Amino acid sequence: RKTLVAPEINISLDQSEGSILSDDFLDTPDDLDINVDDIETPDETDSLEFLGNGNELEWEAKNMPGDSADLFGDGGTEDGSAANGRLWRTVIIGEQEHRIDLQMIKPYMRVVTHGGYYGEGLNAIIVFAACYLPDSNLADYHYIMENLFLYVISSLELLVAEDYMIVYLNGATPRRRMPGLGWLKKCYQMIDRRLRKNLKALIIVHPSWFIRTVLAISRPFISVKFINKIQYVHSLEELEQLIPMEHVQIPDCVLQ
């Protein structure tokens, strides 16, 4: 071991040579001058970040398998802003921040639910029930679909951990509630690359002539790999042969 001897320092309050108050120590270059008035200080409304071992602590809430309705908590855990009597949810999709009007889409949140898991691991079953989509005759239809689109995409990112499949329930859906080609194209384009890659199957239950036509028209902007993942199922009995149905919630109108 080496013992380091500290140099003698004169801590007297005079400005003699070697004192910490001597002119040699008090002289500082101009670029180090600090104007206290220019320093930004946080006010009381600023949030504090707690760091542990240099890592930010992140909290994430997820629903259990089979939970339905609002995947974000029944619309009661908004991001703190309630303007014009509406509740808002802020989500990050593709590294961009978006706001969802939860109040407007609340009647349609059952359109996407978690249907449990299949195989080994966290292979999720995502159920999309088209019968819960809004009627195109509504005055705010485009606004509702825009927010519902963000809700569906952000729900996928929350619910999907590994591989997954989408079960699209097309039965009992009148044409006026069918999503348009532009809406489907936008959904496909905004799905993260990881989600596209991990999608193992898109099962369309009770396919109609219209949905087949829409998919045929969509071929130019959909990859061949994605097209090959599409399966048509004509009955719920046939669906039971493909996936476990314990947590898959089938709407009454589809059952009928």
Automatic annotation (TrEMBL):
GO biological process annotation, one example: apoptotic process
Annotated source species: Eurypyga helias
Gene Ontology CC annotation, any one: cytoplasm
Domain CRAL-TRIO: 101-256
Keywords carried by this UniProt record: Cytoplasm
Main location: cytoplasm
PANTHER family: BNIP - RELATED, CAYTAXIN
SUPFAM superfamilies in the cross-refs: CRAL/TRIO domain
UniProt name for this protein: Caytaxin
Subcellular location: Cytoplasm
